[in-house]
Amino acid sequence: MRGRVGRRFVSTTRCDGSSAGTARAFSASEVKAIRQEFPCLQQEVNGKPLVYLDSAATSQKPQTVIDAVREVYEHKCANIHRGVHALSMRATDAYEKARGIVKDFIGARSDREIVFVRGATEGINLIANSFVRPGLNEG
Known about the structure:
Layout: H1 4-8, H2 28-36, E1 44-45, E2 48-49, H3 63-76, H4 86-106, H5 120-132
Antiparallel strand pairs: 1-2
């Protein structure tokens, strides 16, 4: 089941403008299967299945992500790009491998185009400060 959620989402256009496939709506059975992958969504609120619509603030995690994060904290936790010890080198390798996977998934030309941020707000601020602010003038 590892990585199952990520393969379900289809983008119609990649960053380089090429087509990545055709988007379509999920069937009810597919939605149910996807919900099953998220432990938090297995609870009820007021007698009805939880529906979480605040993903811009905090996104719920599928079990595969929870398991991967736990694995890192239990066996691979170290600073990236800062140490020469085994754990740091493994963490750096995994981090850069993830950058390459994202690059291929979105069709970026280079790993250097991939910047990881902690959340949506940090990403928006980074874009605003990098591209918008330099073009702003008084008045």
